[in-house]
Structures are given as C-alpha cells and as structure tokens.
Design a protein that fits this description.
Order of helices and strands: HEHEHHEEEEEEEHHHHEEHHHHHHH
Helix content: 40-55%
Distance between the termini: 34 Å
Length: 345
C-alpha cells in the first residue's frame, strides 16, 4: 500500500470522491464511526433507520458509488478484476483495507463497518431449496455484515410493513386488504420462481419490467401468473427473441415446481428484492381491481390508475418508513448487528 497517497477529501467538488486515502484521513481526524454501503438508496435507508432508532448518533453513512475503482489500492487478484468490480465488491475491499490498517502504530480496526446485499450467497439451490445461513452473516474480522435476504427490499416482505405502507393508495383499501393478505405469501412464491428464472437466463431486468397486475389471476383458492399474457409481454420486450421467451417461461415453471414445498420464510429471504417488490405492488393493484368488480369499467380503471399514480419509488419510501418505525419496537426483522458493531447507543 502506498501511504504517500493520502489525500484530503475534496469538499469543493459537487460530488466528492470518497477515496481510500481520504477515508483514512477522515478516520484519523474524527471519532465518528463510518458505515459503508453499496448505493445511494442504502445510504438513505440507513440514515432513516439510524435516526428512528437512535435519534442523535455519531455514525456517518457513505456509498461505495463515490469510490473510484482506480483509487482502490492493493489489487493483487487479477481474476477479481476480470470478474467485475461493482459497489458490493468495493465495500468488501474497503472493509478489508481499513480494518487491517495500521499507520504509526495507530489501528483503524472497527472505525469502518460495511453492509452489503447478500444476493443469492448462502442459499442452496441445487439440493432442494435451503437457507444455509438463516440470519445475518457477520464477518467480525473485517467488520462486514450481509443483509438477511437477497437485498434490502426483502425486509419489507412483512405484512405488518406492507399493511401500514400501502394504506392511503386507494379508497378501496379496506375491501382489497383481505384479498391481498390471503395471497401475500402466494405472490412471494411467484416472484421467487420468476426471479430464479431470471437468474437462470441472466435477465433479471426483463423479468421485473414485464410483470404487471393484469398478468396476475386470482382464483377461489390461489394466485396464479398467466403465462400466456406474460409471454406476449416478453415477446414485445426489446432484444428478447422467441427462444429467450421460451427459456424464461420454461425456467419459471421448473422453479415453481422446485419451490412448491419450500417454507415461506426461506422464500421470503431468497426472493430477488426488486422483483419481489414489483410483484407486491402489482398484487395490491390487482386486489384493488377485484374490489371494484361490481363497478363500471371506467371506475375500475380510475381505481387502478390511482394506485399506479403512486410510483414505485414512493411506495418503497413508504415501506422504508414503515420498516424503520416497526424496527424500533422489534416488531420486524432489521440488521441490528450493524448497529451493535458500530456500538451505537
């Protein structure tokens, strides 16, 4: 490591770069603890969570997005570079560097804590479906914590959170709610199978962007995904040919069979966070539509359009606020290990 490259943080820039050298200077100049997360949305989430849980605190939250790849020192593994080095890898690398840092007999261990998305790590998808971690993975030596599930959104897959967050999106909330609750677990199962199909063909974004409330069908006993309608949606997606459409549908049906006997708690954490959240939104929209079944078609459309007028970002923000409030009462799962490692009181 080249210790001569210790630069001060550029506060005059409109978007200062949080480089390893400047971070070391920052750590030396302040007793504040640093939490490093992957992206700006994670920064917002942890700032809200910290404020809700602890009020005033001495934790500063930073995004790995502000770290330039060329400024991350000590790359000795060329395969690591070839495999792709995104924000998740930056957080892991920075935690390793800072928590092993010792300059002039001054240790920086514990002054930087990292939090990353678990993604599919630690899930066994080959020998049945199993969660081999069943909690937050804590790497004490480098001060790094993995999310409990695939990503931050998985914490929102709790009916308590959704119930509180989605109230106000429709005047038919009370009528739609029992139907939504009945199929809450069903939609996570569908989302999990669809996301795993996306993983199989490496097309997560295609899956997320082709899911719509009209694809979901509610029967007397269960929630179903209409693959005929989904097929048409996939066929109209730019860059997706008929062969890929067939592969996606086939993979979805295969994963549906594989996860059929898997318990909900495992699937809740396994499900791709972004895909799962999209399914939640579309299920709620479908339930509002069903709640208006006896109304004129125009009134049904207006009810659906009102729900859709609250965009995905607004719904995520409402879930985030609900999550933080319920975390304060220990009513829902949240990464308390992060705050324990930061010694926040």
């Amino acid at each position: 490591m080249n210790h001569s490259k210790i630069n001060s943080m550029n506060t005059s820039s409109s978007k200062p770069q949080l480089r390893p050298g400047s971070l070391r200077n920052l750590l030396r100049m302040s007793d504040r603890k640093r939490l490093l997360v992957e992206g700006p949305d994670d920064v917002i989430a942890f700032k809200i969570l910290l404020k809700t849980l602890y009020g005033n605190h001495d934790v500063s939250v930073h995004s790995a997005e502000t770290i330039k790849l060329e400024d991350v020192e000590e790359f000795s593994d060329t395969h690591e570079m070839e495999a792709g080095f995104g924000n998740r890898q930056k957080v892991k690398k920075m935690c390793k560097i800072v928590n092993s840092l010792n300059i002039n007999n001054e240790s920086y261990k514990g002054q930087l804590v990292g939090f990353i998305d678990r993604e599919y790590d630690g899930f066994d998808l080959l020998n049945g479906i199993a969660d081999n971690i069943r909690g937050h993975k804590v790497l004490q030596d480098i001060k790094l914590i993995w999310s409990r599930g695939h990503s931050l959104e998985n914490y929102y897959f709790d009916f308590i959170i959704i119930l509180e967050a989605f109230d106000g999106y429709s005047e038919f909330f009370d009528i739609a709610l029992p139907l939504f609750e009945r199929h809450f677990e069903d939609t996570i199962r569908l989302a999990c199978a669809a996301a795993l199909a996306g993983k199989t063909v490496n097309r997560f974004e295609v899956i997320r962007r082709t899911i719509d409330w009209e694809i979901l069908r509610i029967t007397d006993t269960r929630l179903e995904l209409d693959t005929d309608i989904w097929k048409h949606s996939l066929e109209s997606f730019k860059g997706i040919d008929s062969s890929m459409v067939y592969s996606i549908i086939a993979a979805f049906e295969e994963w549906q069979t594989k996860i059929a006997s898997c318990n909900f708690q495992t699937l809740r954490w396994l499900c791709h966070g972004h895909v799962g959240f999209t399914f939640m939104i579309e299920l709620y929209t479908r339930c509002v539509f069903e709640a208006c079944a006896d109304m004129k078609e125009e009134d049904q459309k207006n009810a659906v359009n009102r729900v859709r007028s609250f965009g995905s970002n607004a719904k995520q923000n409402d879930c985030l606020k609900s999550w933080s409030r319920n975390s304060k009462n220990d009513a829902v799962s949240y990464p308390k290990e992060v705050f324990q490692m930061l010694n926040v009181e």
